[in-house]
């Protein structure tokens, strides 16, 4: 790509904007917007010299976790990996993450880039980034205000898959991905979960199945990696006849499936260099991903925070709870434009809620009320809610729990004095 004399200015002003945004408390998109305005080819320029190219991770749920997992597996094999650990998965967010790791000519200093990419955007930026491999996780009910129909997302992913240079890594238990797979023109590698293990999830795996569509299952013999057991946070994964045990950073069947996806992607990217032992060890030593079952100490109290994005996300996290929370706060705001989907969620495992907060605190309390579950206080103001939450007696066993949508997760963590998401994986 021809040198752009404005690229050094784009890098400098982008970095300055990044510092300014961090000082004011966040904002991952603006620095990328500034840089791309000065250099519209910033994305392609950043990755053009990477020896091992680019990987996209996309789908309805699990993108951030799987991106972190794939990154860990590759680093466990000695590679220098760039990733957009800030969670900004739109073009401007990806560029913002890159600004801290590019030289003045705009080139990333890494062997490979593992990028979380929004499922609607992946097909639009693939021509610039030229991904070698795409990891397609699932097609689930999510962002109906944006996507209207999960089938539309499946078509986006099909368009993207056709642009991958070498291969796609696919969830064998997702009906929509199995449906579109025959139209993909690159090699396919499958990951998944044993059907008997999947049956332990009380609400079932949340794969959206198009009405009237019957698709043959992918047999175990054609799956590169498959979850064959999960006890607590220890997942057993069968990999080409070998067995690996992975200590997951958080509880839940969805995290085990994401680990199988990461091992499959690592194998497809590294070939004969791949070591199952090294991959499993890398996954077992990971910290929790931002907001996904994080445990934090606040004023001497242990607090766990669980991010819920949509119906499948909340269902899987509820299934993973070992018991009814002793102290619970539930937070939701305008980041969930239409929260009525919660009417379809069985909240009985929570037993009730002590505090609801965020601009939609009253609506959340209504959902609990309709299921005849007790509601403590409705406190829309986050700072006031945190003070009340910390003042509640600590449980005799376990820890206090917060369930929040993405925007509230960021806001509540900030109030509790926790570090921001920016730079978590590349600093």
UniProtKB/TrEMBL annotation:
Every Mur ligase central domain range: 57-264
Record key words, sorted: Ligase
Entry GO MF terms: ligase activity
Classification via PANTHER family: LIPID II ISOGLUTAMINYL SYNTHASE (GLUTAMINE-HYDROLYZING) SUBUNIT MURT, MUR LIGASE FAMILY MEMBER
Protein name: Mur ligase family protein
Species name: Pseudoclavibacter albus
